[in-house]
Amino acid sequence: MINDLIEPLGASCEDWDGEILAVFDRHGRSRLAPTLSDLWSAVEALTGERIDPLLGQGVGGAVQ
């Protein structure tokens, strides 16, 4: 479900060792997100897009 929200921004995430999420962008860069709250800032840092997870869309409307 998370990947459905962030994929239109060019990002994806994977469970990493059952304790943390690894977030990747289209260029292969990555960030680790220890909590779900950290996930959103990691996506923003990698993509340069602001995202509102509660609305399910980027600030620019990138995620539908």
Q: What features would you describe in this structure?
A:
The protein is α+β, with helices and mostly antiparallel strands and 64 residues long. The chain has one domain. The chain contains 2 helices and 5 strands, in the order αβββαββ. It has a 3-stranded antiparallel β-sheet with strand order 1-2-3. A two-stranded antiparallel sheet has the order 4-5. Strand 2 and strand 3 form a beta hairpin. The two termini are 13 Å apart. The model has no long low-confidence stretch (mean pLDDT 86).
Count of helix runs: 2
Please tell me the overall pLDDT.
86
Residue share in helices? 25-40%
Number of separate strands: 5
The share of residues in extended strands comes to: 25-35%
Describe the sheet with the most strands: 3 strands, antiparallel
Low-confidence stretches: none
Strand order in the sheet with the most strands? 1-2-3
Radius of gyration equals: 11 Å
Order of helices and strands: HEEEHEE
Shape: globular
Derived from helix and strand composition plus strand pairing, the structural class reads: alpha+beta
How many domains? The number is: 1
